[in-house]
Amino acid sequence: MSGEPAGTPYWDPAELPPQPQLQGVVTADVAVVGAGLAGLSCAYHLAERAPGLDIAVVDAEQPAAGASGRGTGLLGPRAGPALDRAVRRFGPRTAGRMHRASQQAVRDVIDLCARLAVPCGLRPGEQLMATRSPAGLVALARQARAGRELGLDVPVLTPAGIRDRVGIPYRAALLHRPAATLDPAALTCALARACADKGVRFYGRSPLLALHPGDLVGPELVLPHGRLYAGQAVLAVNSAAQALDLPVGTILPLEVYAVATEPLSTSAYEALGGRAGHAVVDAVPLAPYYRLLPDGGLVAGGGTASVPAGLGAPRLQALRERAWGRLERWLRSLHPDLARARVTHRWSGRIGMTGDDLPVVGPVPGYSDVWYIGGCGGHGLALSVAHGAHVAGALLGEPEPGDPLPWHRSRAPRLPLRGPVRPLLRACVDAHGWAVRRVC
To answer: pTM of whole model > 0.70?
Structure first.
């Protein structure tokens, strides 16, 4: 590849099921809006558990066109705030349940890949949350202490233990298991094909414009060229909830950034984790991270997030250039050979963040038989699949095992997105450790 780096490559659309634009009046037992991992997981589990159910999946574009097709493929346990903050907010019992639920979500995705026989580059491995800074040492010490008190399998790695895995002079790390890396677009599209095989209908290029409570049964979904009447609906639309004015609290759209390199030298590839498939996350807010690719390249992400709302195209592009430049400087600091590695891809994507760092997975207030999924805050690869399965069970009337988890709720906190109170948003962002930046 020559010239400027390209954007992230998409999964071949020829591999996707037919997706005509929705026109006229259409009915379904269940309408799923959003053909990302959360929506498709919900449709898949509904079709698997209730064969014969009439399910329609509607998307503004096509499967994997949004965040689920633009992720960097880190599959690891994390749900909501860090362990020590989760203990302070929810108590030890709930904090432990949260972390174990996120570990189970990782296992479920690995099992799902095996069931679907997904050619998605799945590489089971370990995820290291590591640090080279004094502030990172303090943060890791707090999390390690909380993990020990909760009886979780989150061992601490000394510099010697880190060197056994990656040749970077980190001072300490937490080892998260189970973990893996994969191509999330491939998984998303494989789910779409599996849904189609089970009789799920797809409609593409059909953005949801409005949602109305049904007069008799179920909701009415208004689309550009038609209407969809369903007995039940699932809105797996993440931060698009704001544009639809859904009463689910603030799901703040943040733009995050990633880069990928050409295949590395053998020495650099092995020093950074090699064939073992380790992924490394830096222990700072919105941490930069990297993972290795099966072809010998490297993907890096994180480090910066921005609030893109209200920015014109030139300012938004300038912001992206700054974010990519910062990320490239970080990855080149990892190993001397990376100073010469060519960046072949640069891209960005939107995630949904809430004011308390927890997703929202629950019924939409004021609408009977409508559920919402969103706000995973950059930890959506495993959680989105888990949330889709949870909502499928709820729609089918299956009892929830145990007490509800903190993200099984209908609303997130409200945040000031505009007007003179906007500085409060900055304060909230800083309090949660998000490194949100804008071009001045």
So the answer is: yes
